[in-house]
Amino acid sequence: MPALSKNISIFPFIGYIKHAKYFVTSAFHGAVFAILNKVKFFVFPVSDNPNDPKSMDSRLIALLDTFSLSSCYVYDKENIPNIDDVTFDHINESETSAYRHNSIQFLKDALES
């Protein structure tokens, strides 16, 4: 696969994730698209203190916890779990739809206030 440009547009980006065998990210939306496309993935931390509620990682950790995928978060680069252990069997369409609905409602509420 060619190196990805930092200026890649959204549709090719989603396509790369959708057709990937594995995906590694530190971005919230990368994790979202991996979950929606059921692509095995790992998330590496952005901050030095990922458990700090003010860190950029707190939103990622909450997302992974919501879908029982906390094992996808790599806290220790020296101890990376087996990516083949990542499964999506427990995630159904109603869960992702509910999460999507809540996210849209959050955005609407934020825009109205």
From TrEMBL:
Protein origin, superkingdom: Bacteria
Pfam families in the cross-refs: PS_pyruv_trans (PF04230)
Domain Polysaccharide pyruvyl transferase: 13-47
UniProt protein name: Polysaccharide pyruvyl transferase domain-containing protein
